[in-house]
Amino acid sequence: MHTYIISDLHLTPERPEIINAFFDFLVNHAPTAERLYILGDLFEFWIGDDAGGMLGADPILDAMKAISQVIDCYFMAGNRDFLVRETFTDRTGFKIISDETVIDLYGTQTLLLHGDSLCTDDIAHQQFRSQMMTNVQFCDEFLQLNIADRIEQAKQARLQSNEHKSAISMGIMDVTESAVLASFEKHSISQMIHGHTHRQNIHEYDINGGKATRYVLGDWHATSSIMQVDKDGINIINSPI
Fold first, then answer.
1. DSSP H helices in 144-204
2. What distance in Å separates the CA atoms of residue 234 and residue 241, rounded to the nearest whole number?
3. Which residue in 13, 50, 84, 166 is deepest, having the highest Cβ count within 10 Å?
4. Taking the CA of residue 70 as centre, how many other CA atoms within 13 Å lie in the half-sphere pointing to its CB?
5. In this predicted structure, what is the pLDDT of residue 150?
6. 135 by DSSP, 3-state: which?
7. What is the pLDDT of residues 193-212, one digit of tens each?
């Protein structure tokens, strides 16, 4: 048996081919696994569990519910879908896990995280995390707005995010090595898996004389980035979309 791990699909009606690729994965590939983890940014934006219908997400949620009846499914929120709440679990059958969760992955203690917490050089994003993403008062007040207002604010946030990305270097938006090393030591693990940066890669480290590995998932844009893990190791499969 094996486990699938994916992230950063950024599903939106504007990119129906990505949605169709996700449907194909859930129907034709995911049932062969024993577990599925989604490590955030499944949606381009998520403005509350009550707004999925208006965003055209119902078919996606239905497909997730179907696969959750077959295998164990887990969801970790990213910076685009941090407003997922408990009713998302009721709707999809996916269990919500917190950022920085350690699991036993076929005998190896492995840290799963979305990845944006490691990008500490991106000051603007870290302010967004502290002032909005992890700010309970902000989230509660935002979710009390009517759906139309939430959609408009989300659109404005996307524009600001795109402007921010175009104004800073790619290096600043990538992880900070000191944050990576601190996470390895904090959780006492030698294996880490995350997304967020869209820079699929495998990074090796020497920590206190021992080997550690950081796996970075790619996004779903031109290709899908699907990590398959079993007792024999880790393989990232890229398929054209």
1. 147-167, 170-173, 177-187
2. 22
3. 84
4. 14
5. 93
6. coil
7. 999 999 999 999 998 889 99
Task: Classify 213 in phi/psi space as left (phi over 0), alpha (psi -120 to 50) or beta.
Answer: beta
- Over residues 38-63, mean pLDDT: 93
**Ramachandran angles phi, psi of 38, nearest 5°:** -110, 120
Show the tokens assigned to 172.
């600043």
Tell me, what CATH number does 173's domain have? 3.60.21.10
Angle formed at CA 101 by CA 71 and CA 60, multiple of 5 degrees: 40
| DSSP β-ladder status, 35-38 and 72-75 | parallel
The residue range of the domain holding 75 is: 3-240
Number of domains in the chain: 1
Closest among 227, 178, 221 to 202, alpha carbons compared: 227
State pLDDT tens for residues 92-121: 999 999 999 999 999 999 999 999 999 999
- Look up residue 236 and give its amino acid: I
One-letter amino acid at 13 equals P
Structure tokens at 61: 């949620």
Pairing assessment for the beta strands 72-75 and 95-96 based on DSSP bridges:
parallel
Triad 93, 95, 100: Cα angle to 5°: 155
